[in-house]
Amino acid sequence: MRENLLARLRAGEDPFPGIIGFGQTVLPHLERAIIAGHDVILLGERGQGKTRLIRTLTELLDEWTPAIAGCEINDHPYQPGCARCRRLAAEQGDELAVTWRHRGDRYGEKLATPDTSVGDLIGDIDPVKVAEGRTLGDPETIHFGLVPRTNRGLFCLNELPDLAERIQVSLLNVLEERDIGVRGYALRLPLDLVLVASANPEDYTNRGRIITPLKDRFGAEIRTHYPPTLADELALIRQEAELAWGGADSDAVLPEHLVQVIARFTRLVRSSPAVDSRSGVSARFAIAAAEAVTASAVRRAAISGEDQPVARVCDLPAVISTLRGKVEFEVSEEGREQEVLEHLLRRATSDTFRAALGSADLTGLLARFAEGGTVETGDLVPAADLLRRIGEVHGLAKIMERLDMSGGESLGQAAAALEFALEGLYLMRRLSKDEVDGGALYRT
């Protein structure tokens, strides 16, 4: 891993593709830890990409590596470690069967749960092998656990504090002496692996703790964080959100201005004093919001018969109730969760409106309301109907250009642009809005 990492750094390549927002903070520390040959523990609140980062480390392994065929712990043909492979190497010599393992097969992962046992991680006696006639003293009666089975690879232990303290003790030798012992066997099995663990800082006091000797044996403790900038938040949503589910009917469009609203909304929720900052607001909050808003557009298209689903502002409020479960609120805010999220969503929408259309000429749209006109919309109002209710708007092309919306002939995108402008004018108090039957009625 060290050699492959250094080769990528010298070539100017990204050693951790797909990781967003860690470039100047987390990744330099991780690179130093890998070069130093240290085991690592990543500390951070939920949804900060710890497991995703760990899984990218497999790309630093050699793509293919030789191993003795049939070996449970992937022994190297030149350096057999287990009793079986040493016996076969002595018996067969150059005829020893060899297989090639891909780096994707050299990654092991375990979610640490209170019921995890030493046998799961390290190994135990295999009663089937004993029943076959082997004696209990025979090392070949051992069934190896997940850690030795990842020998010559990378092992990830998620939520380490949830692991019972007496089980954490079994990892001490793995991290320091790089060997394991199983029950009373006279066994010293050298391992060649990198062990990376993840934990939430609050877990040290809430659900469990990492015992001091184990923390001391990790070479590096690295703190992760949420995307530091709006640009990083936007990039993360674009990369992770699954907005196409196959089939022409679900080929939906999530306009850029709505992605910005969702990103700003997530950041506002994360920094809100009403939200428990110790729990954090996962990046999955923004990803789920983007997918739910797009799904709302697909639902509208299916019901109304639209050709192409395009998400609109009217699709945003409906997803708040489904996102509430992803946020831990302060005790003092009990009963106000919906109200808090709705307020923050309005702030995110107004901030996006100021950034995109704050200086735009919207007199053509306001003229629609000059003589007491109204426009009603909702999450089941088709784009064609909404455009018909608004009528011809002078300057629509300029509005869509400012919103980075191509496809000026698309009814869905035109409706999305105009509805966003209407909502922005309402939030700027240049229009009024009434809630009607799950929709909205804009008026002067």
Notes on the structure:
The protein has 444 residues and is α/β, with parallel strands linked by helices. It has 2 domains: 2-223, 3-Layer(aba) Sandwich (Rossmann fold), CATH 3.40.50.300; 230-443, no CATH class. The chain contains 19 helices and 14 strands. Strand 8 and strand 9 (189-190) form a beta hairpin. The longest helix has 22 residues, at 283-304. The mean pLDDT is 90.
Biggest β-sheet: count, sense, barrel?
5 strands, parallel
Please give the share of residues in helix: 25-40%
Q: From the helix content, strand content and strand pairing, which structural class follows?
A: alpha/beta
Could you tell me the radius of gyration in angstroms? 29 Å
Shape summary: elongated
Kindly report the spatial arrangement of strands forming the biggest sheet: 4-7-10-1-11
Which CATH first-tier class of the largest domain would you pick? Alpha Beta
CATH fold assignment of the largest domain: Rossmann fold
What is the distance, rounded to the nearest whole angstrom, between the alpha carbons of the first and last residues?
A: 65 Å
Mean pLDDT score? 90
- CATH architecture tag of the largest domain: 3-Layer(aba) Sandwich
CATH homologous superfamily label of the largest domain: P-loop containing nucleotide triphosphate hydrolases
The total beta strand count reads 14
Summarize the structure.
The chain is α/β, with parallel strands linked by helices and 444 residues long. It is built from 19 helices and 14 strands.
